[in-house]
Amino acid sequence: MKAKTIKKILRTKIDGWLKTIEDEKVRDLASDSVIVTGGAIASMLLNEPVNDFDIYFRSHTAAWAVGSYYIGKFEAKNKNGIACTITLNDKAGRIRCIVKSAGIASEEGTTRPYQYFEARPAGEADAYVSEVMTDAGEIEDRYVETEKAALEITDTEKPKYRPVFLSTNAITLSHKIQIILRFYGEPDEIHENYDFTHCTNYWTSWDDKLVLRPVALECLLAKELRYVGSKYPVCSVMRLRKFIARGWQVNAGQILKMLMQINALNLLDPRVLEDQLTGVDSAYFAEVTHALHEKDSEKVNTAYLVEIIDRMF
Fold first, then answer.
1. Conformation bin of residue 229: beta by default, left when phi > 0, alpha when psi is -120 to 50
2. I need a surface site. Which of 29, 34, 224, 311 has the fewest CB within 10 A?
3. Are residues 215 and 228 located together in one domain of the fold?
4. Beta pairing, strands 177-184 & 104-106
5. How far is CA 274 from the centre of its chain?
6. Which domain holds residue 275?
7. Strand partners, 184
C-alpha cells in the first residue's frame, strides 16, 4: 500500500474516533497529540488486514485526560453490573489503569470470568477492518463500506468506539482502536519501549505526517525480525510465536540479545515479573503473578515458579 493511502486511512480513522469524544476539551487535547505506531502501519505496508490501531499520546496531559474520560464512560455504562474500582495511577513517568480486583474489566461486567484478548471468541478476534486499498481517490467511500461491513458482523446496534476492555496497559475500544496509556512522549521516546524494528514507523496527528524508517521498511520487505532492545524482553520472546506463525524469520543472534537482557532481570521478584508480562495477552500470566503475590517472597524460587506455571497452563 502506498504511503499516501496509509496517511488517508489513518487520518480518516483517527478523525472518526475523535468525533465520538463528547468532551470538547478532551477531544482537543487528543487531536493535537495522537501518535499511531506499531503493527497497523506494518500491516498496511504489506497489504495485510489491520488487527488494531495502537494510539499513543505525545503529552502526559492528553494521555491522562483521555484515560480519565474513558474510565468515566466505562463506569457509567456498567454502573449496575461492574464489580470493581477503576482508577488511574501515575508513577515513575508511566500511567497505569488500576482495575481492582480483577486486573481487567470488560463491558459485560466483571461478574463473569475475565479474559484477555487471546481468550476472546475467534469470530470477534478476526473481525478486524481490512483496508487493503490501492487507489487513494477511492479510499473514503471504501473505508466507510469496510467499517459498515465490520459493524454488521460484530456490533449491529452498539455505538462505535465505545470502551470494551480496560487493563493495566491500555484501554481497548470497539472498532479496532487500542489506546496505550502506559507510555507517552515523542515517537522516539515511545519506541524506546519497542522491541522489533519493523514496528517503528509512525504517523502524527498534529502535522499529518507519516514517517517510514528505511531500516523498518527493509525488515518488512524481508520479513525479518530485528531486535533493537526493549525494556520488556520477556514480552518480546512471547511475541516471537506470533511472528514465526506468520512466516517471519529470526536469527539466533536476535534471540541471544533478548536472552542477555532477560538475564539482567530478577524474574523471581513478583513486581518485576508482573511488569514484564504486562504486554502479554494471556489471563494465565495474570494468575501466575497473583499466585506469586500471595507467596512469601523469601520462599519464591525457580522450582516454585515452574510449578505454578505448569499448574496454570
1. left
2. 311
3. no
4. unpaired
5. 17
6. 223-313
7. 57
- One domain, residues 160 and 211: yes
Closest CA to 25 of 65, 54, 52: 65
Cell 519493523 locates to 198
- Please list the pLDDT of the chain residue by residue as tens digits (313 residues): 889 999 999 999 999 999 999 999 999 999 999 999 998 999 999 888 888 899 999 999 999 999 999 888 877 665 555 445 667 777 766 777 666 644 445 555 443 333 333 333 333 333 322 322 223 233 333 344 444 433 333 444 678 898 887 777 788 888 999 999 888 999 999 988 888 999 999 999 999 999 999 999 999 999 999 998 888 899 899 889 889 998 999 999 999 999 999 999 998 888 888 788 776 655 567 677 777 777 777 777 888 778 877 877 7
Last residue of a domain, one of 222, 240, 255: 222
- Type of residue numbered 20: T
Indicate the residue among 168, 200, 222 that finishes a domain: 222
Whose cell is 500470566? That residue is 285
Beta strands in 147-302 (DSSP E): 163-167, 170-173, 177-184, 202-204, 209-211
